[in-house]
Design a protein that fits this description.
GO molecular function, one term: DNA binding
CATH architecture of the largest domain: Sandwich
Number of strands: 8
Protein name: Crp/Fnr family transcriptional regulator
Distance between the termini: 42 Å
CATH class of the largest domain: Mainly Beta
Keywords: DNA-binding, Transcription, Transcription regulation
Order of helices and strands: EEEEHHHEEHHEEH
CATH topology of the largest domain: Jelly Rolls
CATH superfamily of the largest domain: Jelly Rolls
Pfam families: cNMP_binding (PF00027), HTH_Crp_2 (PF13545)
Largest sheet: 4 strands, antiparallel
Strand order of the largest sheet: 1-4-2-3
Strand content: 25-35%
InterPro entries: cNMP-bd_dom, cNMP-bd_dom_sf, HTH_CRP, RmlC-like_jellyroll, WH-like_DNA-bd_sf, WH_DNA-bd_sf
Helix content: 40-55%
Number of domains: 2
Shape: globular
Length: 196
C-alpha cells in the first residue's frame, strides 16, 4: 500500500485482521473539531486491529505512513486458529497488552502538568527507540516525518508543534532537517522529558 492510503476507517465493519509485514501505519481518531490524533505508529510485525475479533465496528482509522505490505487474515480463520494454537493466543495477548501499556503512558503524558515540549521530547524519544538507527551524529529516526504528522501524534496544531520543536532544537536535544529527526543523545532527551 502507498503512503497516505487508508486500510480502514473508524466505524467501518471489518471482518479481517491486518498485520504489518513491512513499512509503517498510523492508527488515529478524529476529535470533535475534526483534528487528527495519532494513537499509535506501528511497524513490521505489528497487528493493527486485533480488536476486530469482538465483531464490532473499527474504533480507529488506519493510514499508511510509509509504503507498506500488509497481511490480511480473515477473522473466522484467525478465531479457528486461536482454538488450537497457544503461541498465537500468547502473541495476541502480548500485542494487546503492549498497546494498553502504551496507552497508559500516553495518558500520563496528556495531563496539563506536562509542558508541550516535554510531550514532544517523549514522543521523539519513543520514535527513536522504535524506529531509530544509530549513527555517528546520534540516533536518526528512520521515518520521513513532517511536523504536521508529529503534531497529529501529539494531538496539537502544527504551529504549536513547530514552537515546541524549536525549543528542543535550540537546546540541542533534537536536530531536524527536511522531515528527518536526529536525536544527538537519547539519554539526555530521556532525562529532559522525565525531569519535573
Amino acid at each position: 500500500m502507498k503512503k497516505g492510503q487508508h486500510l480502514y476507517r473508524e466505524r467501518e465493519e471489518i471482518v479481517t485482521v491486518y498485520a504489518v509485514v513491512s513499512g509503517t501505519a498510523a492508527l488515529y481518531k478524529m476529535n470533535s473539531m475534526g483534528e487528527k490524533k495519532v494513537i499509535f505508529v506501528l511497524g513490521k510485525g505489528s497487528l493493527l486491529n486485533e480488536e476486530v475479533l469482538q465483531d464490532l465496528p473499527e474504533p480507529v482509522s488506519c493510514e499508511i505512513m510509509e509504503s507498506a505490505r500488509i497481511l490480511a487474515i480473515p477473522r473466522k480463520q484467525l478465531l479457528a486458529l486461536m482454538e488450537t494454537d497457544a503461541r498465537l493466543m500468547r502473541f495476541l495477548f502480548f500485542s494487546q497488552s503492549h498497546k494498553v501499556r502504551r496507552l497508559y503512558r500516553q495518558l500520563k503524558n496528556t495531563t496539563n502538568a506536562t509542558r508541550g515540549e516535554k510531550k514532544m521530547a517523549a514522543k521523539l524519544w519513543k520514535l527513536a527507540r522504535d524506529y531509530g538507527k544509530k549513527e555517528e551524529v546520534g540516533v536518526r529516526i528512520c521515518l520521513k516525518l513532517t511536523v504536521t504528522q508529529l503534531a497529529d501524534m501529539l494531538g496539537t496544531k502544527r504551529e504549536t508543534a513547530s514552537r515546541q520543536l524549536k525549543v528542543l532544537v535550540e537546546q540541542g536535544l533534537v536536530r531536524y532537517d527536511r522531515n528527518t529527526f536526529v536525536i544527538p543523545d537519547t539519554d539526555v532527551l530521556n532525562r529532559y522529558f522525565k525531569e519535573e
